[in-house]
Amino acid sequence: MPSLRDAARGRILFGGDYNPEQWPEEVWEDDVRLMKEAGVNSVTLGVFSWAKIEPRPGAREFDWLDRLMDLLHAHDVGVVLATPTASPPPWMGAQHPETLPRSEDGSVVWYGSRQQFCASSPVYRRYAAALTEDLAARYANHPALTVWHINNEYCTHCWCDETAAHFRRWLQNRYGTVEALNEAWGTAFWSQRYDTWSEILPPRKAQYMKNPTQVLDFKRFTSDALLECYVTERDIVARHSPDIPVTTNFMPLWSGQDAWAWSAQEDIVSVDIYPDPKDPLGGQYNAMLADMTRSQAAGPWMLMEQAAGPVNWRGVNHPKPAGLNRLWSLQSVARGADAVCYFQWRQSRQGSEKFHSGMLTHAGEQGRTFREVKGLGAELATIGAAVSGTDVPADVAILHDWDAWWAGAQEGRPSALLDYTEVVRSWHRALWETGISTEFARPEADLGRFKAVAVPQLYLLTDAAIDNLVGYVRGGGTLVCGFFSGVADADDRIRPGGMDVRLRELFGIRTLHEWWPLDTDTTVECDGFRAGLWSEELEPERGTQVVSAYRDGELAGLPAVLRKGRAWYVSTLPEPEALRTLLGRVAEEAGARPVLAGLPADVEAVRRGELLFLLHHGRSTVTVSVPGEQVDLLTGRVVAGSVALGRYGAAVLRSRAAR
Ligand code: GAL
User: Which side of the chain, N or C, has fewer Cβ within a 10 Å radius?
Assistant: First the structure.
């Protein structure tokens, strides 16, 4: 199977989305000159080129793309070539309105922006496949081609009639009979029973709350329907060029796509990460998404898009202060990225993204952003050979699952304040702050190689997942599980007792009497810490160790955190410092250690292969003690005993003994 290694060839890929169709051809020469200056060795071409290649149905205008492919190749810039199927031209919507998605209320999502296609539309699929076929036939053997990039951030949703028919086929495949569907969806409730398949619809706009299992299945279906589109195009390009790896870029922690299922269908896992420069924990966010993507890739991954400066889709779009782009890029590399790419190469002058930064901004080659990009390109070239292809070891797994997210994020739950991604982020943050490296895993994955497993909050767990967790602890593993977990089965049916009995036995919980969610800005005092968001009325079995009890409110005296041997249960969300202390204690007992002990605040240490990355997220100057004699690959200098890091500073150390 082709891989990122084939495309990177011992380098870190560096570059970005290149949209030359927005510029007169004279600019292209300037582009390649500046790309060379910046150390760009890879660009992503064609993402939004459908209307340019196929200006009217069936037309093919490839000459301009031929010239670009040749130009880039002549300058030794590799091409990640996109199938431009994310944004159909207006003619498709005008001539085939059934390709346009419909919202939950039946209204049409029109052209004039992008991504206006219904994944179930045979017409859309036919045009997309035909174009992919011709693109692949034309460029499969072009020497500039390094990676196929299918579509872009698959994310559309549609509730149209074509989708309804497709959804029914998907449901027939899942349930076989309408009776089985009625049983799974619990349609005895509110007179929702279906008599025939033809009555079943996507969960369209309704009078009151919708059937939750129907909504859950529709999310599963939508992810699968988009995946079918991806697989169709992937198979076409792979047939023409079996040695070229194929990817599609994810939005990370995006609810629309089960990235575990998708990544299994990719040669390269790639992702677009946009931390907010204003977020004091932007570095943690970047680390979390890097860890998640590396876990999906089971190795090195591709940062397909990030921003060199501000984006344009937040309320207030903050530029990156000097040094931050470099720091977060090196952090991505430390956490497994073998490609550091941007949206986009040259900032657009027209269209919706003219205030979104590029590597080359409106300020041009004299601009600070481009100067910093050039500096980064040179550094990545320096460390590329030592880094590329190497692994990032991690002893602790964080479990994350789309089904649990989809089922848990619906209406009618104990608290609308519960935000799954925020809980996952709190737990990752706690471990990140302890300096312990983490990976993500799905609940059914083989967990045997991890010293500890953390479950921030998995409302839905399949039987296989529960058996997996129980087996993991029986086999000697340490498990720490957050509140409101193991509540529902795969059909979103509440498990008897409100938490699966196997889990209650595992944690030593006799009865879960009630969930007691907390209001915004309300905290509850527990032994040793304060907590928020959630609490639970738990009755432990005799012999269960109460690690911390609630101290105030209705639950005073009842367990907040308990454990039975190596199985810990945390029934609330401790404040950040307390969660860090707790998870640090659990991990330490399990034998998981920080990468480097005694780090100053704001300094992150990551081991990748034989290298030690030190990343300073603060603005002061700090001194970090390091073992033995090391060489900082970024500067070539020998470091003995300690290294000083300035504002947003970084060092990439290799032990001299290791050489
Ligand atoms: C991504 C998208 C790019 C660009 C970018 C702006 O979601 O793939 O095309 O729009 O966002 O941040």
Answer: C
